[in-house]
UniProtKB/TrEMBL annotation:
SUPFAM superfamilies the record matches: (Trans)glycosidases (SSF51445)
InterPro entries: FUC_metazoa-typ, GH, Glyco_hydro_29, Glyco_hydro_29_N
Full protein name: alpha-L-fucosidase
UniProt entry tagged with the keyword Amino-acid biosynthesis: no
EC id: 3.2.1.51
Function (record text): Alpha-L-fucosidase is responsible for hydrolyzing the alpha-1,6-linked fucose joined to the reducing-end N-acetylglucosamine of the carbohydrate moieties of glycoproteins.
Keyword Transcription: no
Glycoside hydrolase family 29 N-terminal domain segment(s): 6-350
Keywords assigned by UniProt, alphabetized: Glycosidase, Hydrolase, Signal
Domain of life from the UniProt record: Bacteria
GO biological process: fucose metabolic process; glycoside catabolic process
Sites annotated May be important for catalysis: 282
Family the UniProt entry places it in: Belongs to the glycosyl hydrolase 29 family.
Organism per entry: Spirosoma sordidisoli
Length: 443
């Protein structure tokens, strides 16, 4: 008998030329501002409060009626990010609570229709980013604790008083329509940062290179459909998804939440291995994403600069989060720290922007970054004059301290490169950087 073998309908994602160029520019940018802001900010206990306190949707809906961020000033936020040395902003267009922080036409559950403020903060921010030349990404939650058609419920948000029925396909259409609005009405968007897929994830085993199939509830996120819609609307927009598993086809960068790629330090990213895509890691300035009034666990400027430098050494961007207050201001502790990081970046940004992870893998003492014929040795924690690197892929022709260009002695052998500084790194230096000139490879 005759049998016809039909190839699976899965089409392999081919990023466009614009998309590939945007990926490279994204990697060059290295540092971005993450903003978690929504009506949850009013309760000052993080962005998960609706779920944590099991607030029914109809009660949670009271929050927008007094969300009135009269002190919001897009110019201030964008200037703050720029002065910190950041090249992009990623802001919550919709978090898990389902409330849209922009003027959505497919729902009135948004800032323009439900708050006394009535203004589209994303539009103001998008215009200001455009004016000041900084890129804008939207964080958009797959998971939705408010929409009735987000059914069957996932792992979270079951007890928020919604009907025990719904049409998931309708929900997906709603989400895709909101994404269409975001990619149509706000100018060029640098990308979409998805989160909440994990609420309805399927068994991911072996998904590498394929989109995950429907889970046991019959939930299929139809990522391919959403991703191709985005790429069709704005080919240069980069898609990332905080799903903590290997990238799915259609994604353009890979995220490591609260973790340097490959370090698996938080228990979040155990299933993640580093793929071929640009990398990003995100972290909080205290311990919270959304505004949290009692979270005083501020990371020091030194810790944050170290994280940024280590991210660069791990070939990743660093997306550093603030949770603005309900009045639209960013708390002074964050503003101060960002200004200090900015001062550091002003002097040392050359060793971060446009670099890729350097030839020496991360060490206890620090990391390396590389750009053109330069290798930057970032010494973060080391008390001696001498530091030995393993053998490098080329010959070092000169070495100097980046800060004052004073020479550093080099002794090279097949074993490695010994760097000898005039004095050990000063205790108050955030990062002692040695700049290596690599000799051009000889034929
Ligand atoms: C997610 C959000 O839930 C959180 O509110 C915040 O926006 C952060 C940046 O991202 O955090 C996650 C994401 C994934 C898991 C847990 C928390 N997960 O897979 O278990």
């Amino acid at each position: 008998s005759l049998s016809i073998v039909v190839a699976p309908a899965q089409s392999v994602y081919q990023p466009s030329a614009e998309n590939l160029a945007a990926r490279k520019a994204f990697q060059d940018d290295k540092f971005g501002l993450f903003i978690h802001w929504g009506v949850y900010s009013l309760l000052a206990d993080g962005e998960w409060i609706m779920n944590q306190r099991q607030i029914p949707a109809k009660d949670y809906e009271k929050l927008p009626t007094f969300f009135n961020p009269v002190d919001f000033n897009a110019k201030e936020w964008v200037s703050m990010a720029k002065n910190a040395g950041m090249k992009y902003i990623t802001i919550t267009s919709k978090h898990h609570d389902g409330f849209a922080m922009y003027d959505s036409k497919v729902s009135d559950y948004d800032i323009v229709d439900r708050t006394p403020y009535k203004k589209d903060v994303l539009k103001m921010l998008a215009d200001e980013c455009q004016a000041q030349g900084i890129k804008l990404f939207f964080y958009h939650s797959h998971l939705d604790w408010h929409h009735p058609d987000y059914y069957p419920r996932g792992r979270t948000g079951q007890k928020t008083g919604r009907p025990e029925s719904g049409d998931f396909e309708k929900y997906l259409t709603y989400m895709d329509t909101q994404l269409t609005e975001l990619l149509t009405n706000y100018g060029p968007i640098a990308g979409i940062w998805f989160d909440g897929w994990w609420d309805q994830s399927s068994d991911d085993a072996g998904h590498v290179g394929k989109t995950a199939p429907a889970n046991k509830n019959g939930i299929d996120w139809k990522l391919d459909r959403t991703y191709s819609l985005i790429h069709k609307l704005q080919p240069a927009a980069l898609i990332g998804n905080n799903h903590h598993v290997a990238p799915f086809p259609g994604e353009d960068f890979q995220m490591f939440e609260k973790d340097l790629p490959g370090s698996k330090s938080t228990g979040f990213n155990e299933a993640q291995t580093i793929g071929q895509l640009p990398l990003e890691t995100c972290e909080t300035m205290n311990g919270s994403w959304g505004f949290n009034i009692k979270d005083n666990r501020y990371k020091s400027t030194k810790d944050l600069v170290h994280y940024l430098v280590k991210a660069a050494g791990h070939n990743a961007n660093f997306l550093l989060n603030v949770g603005p207050m309900p009045n639209g201001k960013i708390q002074p502790e964050f503003v101060k720290s960002l200004a200090e990081i900015g001062q550091w970046m002003q002097k040392n940004g050359e060793t971060i922007y446009g670099t890729r992870g350097g030839p020496v893998e991360a060490r206890n003492w620090g990391v390396t970054t590389a750009k053109g014929n330069k290798v930057y040795v970032h010494i973060l924690d080391w008390a001696d004059r001498q530091l030995t690197l393993p053998a490098l892929p080329g010959k070092v022709s000169a070495a100097r301290l980046f800060a004052d260009k004073s020479p550093v002695k080099i002794t090279q052998s097949a074993e490695g490169v010994v760097l000898t500084m005039a004095a050990p790194p000063a205790a108050d230096m955030l990062d002692t950087i040695i700049e290596l000139d690599m000799a051009p490879a000889t034929a």
